[in-house]
């Protein structure tokens, strides 16, 4: 699969070959859904906490006589059925994270990349660089390229001027290649990969010993 390389000035800068094992898969919604759920649950703080009857600050005195009062034989007021009492079976701090294998997470990332390539929303950029770091200039360049909602992935090191110019533009995210993830890919309309990011991704997946064909790659992990 070939893709054109563009510049921030909307000029052509050649072509690049995209590997089918990374960008040529048939996207599976179930794999993407499981990965998005994995990321969202992992991000949950899990700090919710309610006081049970051993933690509320109430008197421990017995409410009434055990017998002879004509009422139920209650103990202290910390019981859940009384106002001000503790919560029965309330939430406690815990981790919401679920487990997914490394192989599955890598496959989900390839499906996310393939979904953008199949939809025509994958763009290869020559380099993400801003000469003066001015937001106005970069915004005009994005408007010319029709990047109103995009995730830009650069190499391992981001240019500070480009990051400074892009951070005030709505619906534009800039990440280094090591921060690429399925949620951020799917939440933005366009995915922009620089040549440095593309090379880093190919090297990353080459080290993971991928199957030679896209069909074998998809069938090795079943939903």
Uncertain runs are none
Task: Please report the first level of CATH classification, the CATH class of the largest domain.
Answer: Alpha Beta
Topology order in helix (H) and strand (E) letters: EEHHHEHEHEHEHH
What's the arrangement of strands in the largest beta sheet? Answer: 2-1-3-6-4-5
Helix content: 25-40%
How many helices? The count is 8
CATH topology of the largest domain: Ribosomal Protein L4, Chain: A
What value does the average pLDDT take? 91
What structural class do helix, strand and pairing data support? Answer: alpha/beta
For this entry, give a set of tags.
alpha/beta, Ribosomal Protein L4, Chain: A, 6-stranded mixed beta sheet, elongated
Layout of strands and helices, then pairs:
Layout: E1 2-6, E2 12-17, H1 20-23, H2 29-43, H3 102-119, E3 122-125, H4 135-145, E4 150-154, H5 160-166, E5 172-176, H6 182-187, E6 190-194, H7 195-207, H8 214-219
Helix pairs in contact: 4-5
What would your notes on this structure say?
This protein is an alpha/beta fold. The protein has 2 domains: 2-43 and 96-219, 3-Layer(aba) Sandwich (Ribosomal Protein L4, Chain: A), CATH 3.40.1370.10; 50-90, no CATH class. 36% of the residues lie in helices and 13% in strands. It is built from 8 helices and 6 strands; from the N terminus they run E-E-H-H-H-E-H-E-H-E-H-E-H-H. It has helices spanning 20-23, 29-43, 102-119, 135-145, 160-166, 182-187, 195-207, 214-219; strands spanning 2-6, 12-17, 122-125, 150-154, 172-176, 190-194. Strands 2-1-3-6-4-5 form a 6-stranded mixed beta sheet. A hairpin with a 5-residue loop joins strand 1 (2-6) and strand 2 (12-17). The longest helix is centred in the middle third of the chain and has 18 residues, at 102-119. It is elongated. The model has no long low-confidence stretch (mean pLDDT 91).
